[in-house]
Amino acid sequence: MFGQRTTMVDRAEALPGRDTPIPAPPPHEVLGTSLTPTYPAGSEIADFGMGCFWGAERRFWRIGAENGIITTAVGYAGGYTPNPTYDEVCTGRTGHTEAVRVVFDPRRISYADLLKVFWENHDPTQGMRQGNDVGTQYRSAVLYHDDAQKAAAESTRDAFQSVLTRSGFGPITTEILPAGDFYFAEAYHQQYLADTKNPGGYCGIGGTGESCPVGIARTGE
After folding, report:
1. Where is this region: Disordered (predicted)?
2. Which structural domain range is residue 122 located in?
3. Active-site residue 90, yes or no?
4. Under a CB-based contact definition with an 8 Å cutoff, are residues 36 and 24 in contact?
């Protein structure tokens, strides 16, 4: 519908966007928590791009509140256009990737634990695509919020690369870059695969691990 742009747009050529954010999404369909700040004291944020954000978000919310997940949300990050719409992101002219935000309690689940979920539930070697989804909006990315997250992302990337190399796969193409603005996606995208919204919905990311090129390679083994 929009074409499949596989090269990043230059900042000067990016769509202008808008000053006004899209309306704030409602509370989490599954967890019942707020998707937008302010988050509970002591919580931390992790932002990831894993291809289709519907399945990526589901993979993280399924970890559960009892295991430290406070809320999850989908949005657009890593690009240039302020407050983009989904249709604009699909053109490849915003520079954004589809992203999932995970707000978590570090006393119950670590950032390293979340990185393990990230690496093992998509294929980080595919460049500007993820499976049949082709374009810059589907690229793999870790958007870190501090130096500790950056170091953890880089060290786990290197560990996972060793697993992939032994299995005959190519280099990881995941971007590891500072988290800039996170623009929340439209309400209908939030928890899209929840049983109460789209019980028959499909996304190849975040299910049984079929997107991982080594059949859920285990970085800790």
Report:
1. 1-31
2. 33-189
3. no
4. yes
